[in-house]
Amino acid sequence: MPEQLDRKNVLAMKLLHYFITEKNYNPIILQGAEDEIWLENMNSDYKIVRIVSNHIINDEQFNFDIFKTKHIVKKIKRKTFSFSMNVLSIFIDLDEDIKFENTKNMNFISLYDENDLSKYKFIYESFPDISNKLEFNEHGFQLFMKITKDINKKNKADATKVEEIFKRKIPYVTIGLILINTILLILMYFCGYEAYFINKYAVWGKGIVEYGEYYRLITGTFLHAFGNGHFLFNMYALYIIGSQMEGFLGRWKYIIVYFFSALVGSLFSIIFNVDIPSIGASGAIFGLLGSLLYFGYHYRVYLGSVIKSQIIPIILINLILGFLPGSGTDNFAHIGGLIGGALITMAVGIKYKSTKADQINGWIVSIILVLFLFFVAFNYVNFS
Question: What is the pTM of this model?
Answer without folding.
Answer: 0.87
